[in-house]
Amino acid sequence: MTRKYFGTDGIRGRANTHPMTAEIALNLGMAAALQFRRGDHRHTVVIGKDTRLSGYMIEPALTAGFIAMGMDVVLLGPLPTPAVAMLTRSLRADLGVMISASHNPFADNGIKLFGPDGYKLSDEVEHQIEAKMDRDLHDELEPAEKLGRARRLEDAGGRYIEYAKQTFPKGLRLDGLKVAIDCANGAAYKVAPQVLWELGAEIVPIGVSPDGKNINKGCGSTSLDVLCEATVAAGADIGLALDGDADRLIVCDENGQVIDGDQIMALIARDWHQAGRLAGSSVVATVMSNLGLERFLADEGVDLVRTAVGDRYVVEAMRADKFNLGGEQSGHLVFRDYATTGDGLIAALQVLAVLVRSNDPASKVCDMFTPLPQLLKNVRYSSGAPLDADTVKSAINDGENRLNGSGRVLIRKSGTEPLIRVMAEGEDMDLVTEVVDDICAAISAEA
Asked: Hey, what domains does the chain have and what are their CATH numbers?
């Protein structure tokens, strides 16, 4: 079934244009409240957001929708996505909402929903909410005496700080460690540096001055030059980069070399496997993760389970087989012992724990395997279905044949932008580049 509003990670779009308008947000609040209104108890929804200017528009619109349906609203203010998921469970709320477009520029925004268990909603539940959004809900509105109320949870940040610190091994501290932390001028700009400081680290803060328009702008996990340069210049032991809603992490070592999500998963998988903590001796990753990770894990006696792209699909696979470690190359890292969704800060603490125990530099600790040459390019399209064209199918088939079993080709549509992502990897970078370029050219000709 084609979805009208929801993509791979909630509803997302350019602020104040369809579907990211106050009207849609109001309607979503009403429909989601109706979906999760069950029983006679007083229903509650928690709402968090990142630092985008448009959050001031989306938050009150959602709030009005929930209140109109008799739901009480707890406003968290700017706080990471995983904090919203955690507080949804902690407050025994019926629903959690995060207003964020993650790593996208400030002009975009999005709305992510969490069920009462703190997990993102299934495709089926999102379909049901969409169906309600297209209905006339006026007859479902609560009478005046049953309207909900809104209040702000003043200590929301403090609650998440304490929760995050509890995931760091007892008896360990970060004393003597200098850590550069880039918060992308986003949701974690207060809580992430505070956690590291309270655990004893010396902090080099970056991206901690949001102004509503500078989220992810030249900083954060998708723009690493500033972090890498600052880490080297400050003589820091490690650099940590979060994205706008702090549900992903990318690291750099003391030399400014980037350590992506695949390397982090390899690091934690080996550490946990050796300690007997890795559930099912398995790691869950997406089809985008490098073949080098798969080969490394196999040598360690660990299986790699692959899913479709999107941290929600990683989490679904983890829940199905009770695995406790998974993630994406892009830095969404899920530790089910601690969180129900990707959490960049908790991921950082797990990396720092291994680093502290090793007494070795990050360049040695975090260099787990040599990735196979991999190239990803995006092709923008305006309309139609370019992947259905015979010329495109032929180019993809030809690319797979040229890699001859020593690599792979992956083609997929973005769930958040009108882009087709073309990825290939193999033993020979020149060949990989040729394959990707040829497929991109064929797609561009049809787009």
From this structure: 11-156 (3.40.120.10), 165-365 (3.40.120.10), 374-446 (3.30.310.50)
